[in-house]
Amino acid sequence: MSEAAPLQPPPTPVAVPVLAVDGLNAYYGRAHVLEDVGFEMGRESVAIVGRNGMGKTTLCNAIMGIRPPELSGSIRFEGQELVGRPSYRIAGAGIGGEQQMLAIGRALLTNPKLLVMDEPSEGLAPTIIEHLIESFRALEHEGVSILLIEQNLGVATALADRQLIMISGQIATETTAEALVNDPDAQRRYLGVEPLAERH
Ligand SMILES: Nc1ncnc2c1ncn2[C@@H]1O[C@H](COP(=O)(O)OP(=O)(O)OP(=O)(O)O)[C@@H](O)[C@H]1O
Ligand SMILES: [Mg+2]
Q1: To test ligand 1's pocket by mutation, which of 54, 59, 63, 190 has the most ligand atoms within 8 angstroms of CB?
Q2: Contacts of residue 25, Cβ cutoff 8 Å, sequence gap at least 6
Q3: Could you tell me which residues come within 8 angstroms of residue 176 by beta carbon, excluding any fewer than 6 positions away?
């Protein structure tokens, strides 16, 4: 009489990242505005923060297929290469990149899996920003991943635990919302903003 063999745990599935950016370089003429940018994200929200002119919008546009004249490297969405695809096909694959808040609702009609947003809180009143954060949280709850590009550190840190800091076309470092909120020096140095703790 042999005892039943213990159940083997199922093999761990190899997770394909929602978004995987690798060796991405972009130029405007001779200006090298994205330098070997790489990061991965799963089913989560990630913020990209940084001072003006660091390359955040260029990165966002590259993901959405709105490309500068010269772009090289790889951007994979659920394993599918996006570089070289036209913008409408990228949106069709399940990404709704939006800059304007009013357009976010329209983007959501396409049921995106990944929402890429460039400064969605720009120019909005604080009460509207609160609603925006609540809406993003509800989307997260439904399984939508969000890549948020923000100068508003309050919004970035309210939504995303992972904070990627862009300096001069590179992801210089990654930190967490908690660490960034508690580090006024980093806020000044990386973001050029008045520290959150000193704001009202
Ligand atoms: N169409 C363009 N032609 C030439 N240079 C450009 C163009 N668009 C952006 N740049 C330059 O590329 C660099 C990165 O710009 P980008 O707009 O990506 O920065 P950003 O981080 O989004 O800045 P901001 O915080 O002001 O939105 C900047 O030096 C900018 O001057
Ligand atoms: Mg920008």
Answers
A1: 54
A2: 32, 34, 35, 36, 37, 70, 71, 72, 73
A3: 161, 162, 163
**Token pair of 69 as six digits:** 């004249």
Instruction: Give the number of whichever ligand sits closest to the CA of residue 48.
Output: 1
Residue to mutate (ligand 1; options 27, 48, 57, 67; most atoms within 8 A of CB) = 57
From 113, 75, 117, select the one nearest 94 (Cα to Cα): 113
Q: Which helix (H) or strand (E) holds 173?
A: strand 170-176
User: Which domains are seen in the chain, by residue range?
Assistant: 43-67+86-189 (3.40.50.300)
Give pLDDT tens digits for 160-191: 999 999 999 999 999 999 999 999 999 988 88
Quote the pTM value.
Answer: 0.86
> Residue 52: nearest ligand to its CA?
1
